[in-house]
Structures are given as structure tokens and as C-alpha cells.
Amino acid sequence: MITTKSGRRLLTQKEIFVNPVEITEGLDKIFVYDLAQKKLIVNIPDNDTSYKISYITDFAPDAKKGDELENDVVLIEKNLSR
Q1: pLDDT tens digits for the chain (82 residues)?
Q2: How far is the first Cα of the chain from the last one, in angstroms, to the nearest whole number?
Q3: Largest CA distance in the chain
Q4: Are the CB atoms for 41 and 56 separated by under 8 Å?
Q5: How many other C-beta atoms can be found within 10 angstroms of the C-beta atom of residue 25?
Q6: H-run or E-run covering 27
């Protein structure tokens, strides 16, 4: 295990390169779109696992030249007792 001076754990080369597994079940619980707030919420199923999340943003059919697109990403970490 490798740690920084402050005690934060760093990943080793072996931990960084793993074979990816595509999640295909339970996506309706992982990805939730709040239409009222226009927010995509991603619920991470396992806090002890690393994830790579990719998504594509499509323009609406009525988008006009000069229309702008803005995406903000915020990571909120909560420690929930079980």
C-alpha cells in the first residue's frame, strides 16, 4: 500500500489497470433524471469500487445555430450508515 504524508491512500499500478465490466442491470436506479431540476443523478452502487462513467449529450431537434450547451459535474460524497 502506498500513502501520502497526510495518510491518504494512493492506488498502485496493479489497482489502476483492471479489466472493465459494463453494468447493464439496475441502470434505472443508478441513473435518475430529475426533470424538474434538469439534473442527472448518478447513484454509485458500491462505494468501495471505482467507476468510469461516460455519457453523451444530444441537442434537442429544435436547437438553433448559436444555442449553447452547459454541463456541470459535481461529486457529492455521503457516508451513510447501514
Answers
A1: 555 566 666 666 555 655 677 888 888 998 898 989 888 888 888 877 777 787 777 777 888 888 887 888 887 776 655 5
A2: 27
A3: 53
A4: no
A5: 7
A6: helix 27-30
CB 40 within 8 A of CB 30: no
Q: How far apart are CA 82 and CA 79, in angstroms?
A: 10
Q: Scan for cell 445555430, then name that residue.
A: 65
Report the alpha-carbon distance of residue 11 to residue 3 in Å, rounded.
9
Instruction: Write out the three cell numbers for 56.
Output: 453523451
What's 70's DSSP letter? -
Give the C-alpha distances (Å, rounded to integers) separating 68 from 3, 18, 38, 63, 71.
43, 37, 15, 9, 10
Cell of 4: 501520502
